[in-house]
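go over this:
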Amino acid sequence: MSQNPFDALGGGGFDMNALMQQAQQMQEQLEAAQDQLNQQEVEGQVAGGAVTVKVNGVGELLDVTVRPGTVDGGDAESLSELGELVVAAYRDAKSRADQLAAETLGPLAGGGGGLPGLG
């Protein structure tokens, strides 16, 4: 009887070392791509640039800019609207960051579908 159980499958054998090396290379490529995303910045904005939000490539909030005159700081309703504008601008930026991540990680992770923190 053969020592390698994979010989019965009609091939040379199964090279576990080669598989592990390939997995290590993919892991290194994935980490490099994630580092790249952490360094990239994407902006989202609403109301013609009244509120602009900047996020990195993985969607972490970096900056919020409100154009002067956008809201009345003494009016509760205006401040509430400002909150809504910030949320909408963040969603715009996050959508752009998700697209960037899909483009960057796509070849490595099938579009990033099952990766934690990407979606």
Notes: The CA atoms of residues 17 and 37 lie 30 Å apart.
